[in-house]
Structures are given as C-alpha cells and as structure tokens.
Amino acid sequence: MKISSAEFIKSATNPGNYPPPELAEIAFAGRSNVGKSSLINVLVNRKSLVRTSSTPGRTQLLNFFNINTGSFSLVDLPGYGFAKVPLSVKKAWGPMMRTYLETRESLKAVVFILDIRRVPREEDIQMLDWLEEFEVPTIPVITKIDKLKRGQRDKPLKEIAAATGLPKDAFSLFSALTKEGKEEVWERIEAALEA
C-alpha cells in the first residue's frame, strides 16, 4: 500500500458525531499501551498522525483519519483496560465501542492488537467476543515483537493463541521499531477493503 496522504477528519463519541459513512473504514482496537498509535503511524508513514503518549489511556474518543484523499478511512478506537482513566470514561467506553462496532456500515475490519509480552485479559476477550457477535472481520496483530529474541516468541504466542481461542497462524507479528510485519498487515487490510 502506497500512502500519499493521511489526514485527521474528526473525533466522535456517538453515531451523531461520526463522519458520513462514505469511506470504507478499518478500525484499530487494543488495550492501552499496546502500541496501537505506533502501529498506525508506521502503517501510514507518519511520525505523529496519531499521538503516541507515555501515559496510557490517552485515546478516549473514536478518531477518524482520511487516507489517500478519500480512498478509505482509519479509525483509532479508544484504548481500554487502563486503571488511571476516570470511572465515568471507563463506563462510557463499552457502550461507545459496542455502538460503533454494531452500527457502522462502512466498517470493513478491525485490527485487533495484543502485546507479545502480555497474556490477553478480560477486556481483550470481551473485544474479541463483540467482534464475533457483530460479525466484524478481524485482523489480529501482535506488537512489540522486537522486545523478544526470535527464539523466545513461540511460548508467548502459544499462550496468546490459547487465551483467545485463535490459531497461532491467525496473528500477524509486528514491530514499530524494525517495521517487521508492516507489509503483511497492509496485505490483510487491503484484502479486507476489497472484500
């Protein structure tokens, strides 16, 4: 995928604020601090299209981005599972996510992101359940693979596969640092956009 442009469209919390559903959308979901912003920035060849933060839980809205001047849209969904987010924000998160996943006709797939060093938790499984419930095509990606040597990857991969119930080969492995996996993730996104 050649990226010629990537621009922020708007943030939203409910369908009344979403941009018109004219562009096919690929959304990105994962817990706070999983490397979601870094993954998006690497994919679109921008250093800071999506703000990365050392403070997890920064993304608390649905953020829409126009890619290649109206080719399609990327949607950065709020990170979940971080303790320091106010309770009111946490409570609003579930309904906000469910509404988007259930009602957005232009949603083509969700890139579901996990950290190779963390066994999936309740919120991760909840997200997978919603994606299955609403029949949203899912592209599972495991990030931060540069944190482990190649020979150390198999054990956590097996644990993640067991926890999610997905086969090991369902996951694309990705590193924002080395860009490993970038092409594979793009291939899967392109296939979802064409489906």
The largest pleated sheet is described as: 7 strands, mixed
Distance between the termini: 16 Å
Instruction: List low-confidence stretches.
Output: 54-58
Instruction: Name the shape in a single word.
Output: globular
Number of helices: 5
Strand order of the largest sheet: 1-3-4-2-5-6-7
State Rg.
16 Å
Q: What is the percentage of strand-forming residues?
A: 15-25%
Spell out the helices and strands N to C: EEHEEHEHEHEH
Fraction of residues in helices?
A: 25-40%
Textual characterization of the structure:
This protein has helices at about 35-45, 85-105, 120-135, 155-165, 180-195, and strands at about 5-10, 25-30, 60-65, 70-75, 105-115, 140-145, 170-175. It contains 5 helices and 7 strands. Strands 1-3-4-2-5-6-7 form a 7-stranded mixed sheet, with helices on both faces. It is globular and about 45 Å long. The protein has about 200 residues and is α/β, with parallel strands linked by helices.
